[in-house]
Amino acid sequence: MLKIIAIEWKLFLREPVTVAFAIFFPTVLLLVLGAIPALRTPDPNFGDQRFIDAYVSTLVVIALAFLGLNKLPATVATYREKGVLRRFSTTPVSPARLLVAQLVVNLIAGTASVVLLMAVCRVVFDIDLPHHALGFLLTFLLGMLSLSALGLLVAAWAPTARAAGGWATVVFMLVMFFGGAYLPRFLMPDLLVRIGEHLPPGVGALQESWLGAAPDPVHLGVLALVTVVAGTVAAKSFRWE
């Protein structure tokens, strides 16, 4: 298992664009936004906080969404299309171990991305670290698992790697929209904000725990439910060839 994880991590590092977007892009985007003076000024729309303070949770969403909905389904679907999964199925190594390795790689990359983001938040912009550390960690894990489960569901149903990429892009764009990546959440109608708070990876719970409140149990419950349902359906419908 450890050997497979190590190999998958090396393969991940050999894709510079994937590494750059998954690990460095959220931090680079924070630096770009933070260079705008108006976004470093307290604003009543954010409870007298700065825009960059309120946008940090969305930056976490970007990292998790890319790993779970862009990288994971494309990788798994490509392995199946090229016969990698079929070859694994003929060895003592279960193909399921490859999926576990993909999840572990995503967790490692996601953790690296968030840690880097936190460091820049604190050192460069004096943004407080998550006040409710346990709640943030739990939301991060459930958010990563729920998006990965959706990514595996796409990989299970898509007939080809190209189709998997197209389907995953649609889900990715929806997650990014409701997560406030395209339009700041304070500009969105209340209904869309509420929907976004409950959808993976739980932008509402991420923001609550970052600002100091315990995450809403309902938000966490939805993330857990999506993980179980999507993961179960993906496992039952997954094709190794």
TrEMBL record:
ABC-2 type transporter transmembrane domain location is 5-193
Q: Where are the transmembrane segments?
A: 19-39, 51-69, 99-121, 133-158, 164-184
| Membrane topology field | Multi-pass membrane protein
Q: Which UniProt keywords apply?
A: Membrane, Transmembrane, Transmembrane helix
Annotated signal sequence is: none
Record-linked InterPro entries: ABC-2_transporter (IPR052902), ABC2_TM (IPR013525)
Query: Entry's Pfam families?
Result: ABC2_membrane
Where's it found, cell-wise? Answer: Membrane
- Name of protein: ABC transporter permease
Q: Which organism is it from?
A: Saccharothrix lopnurensis
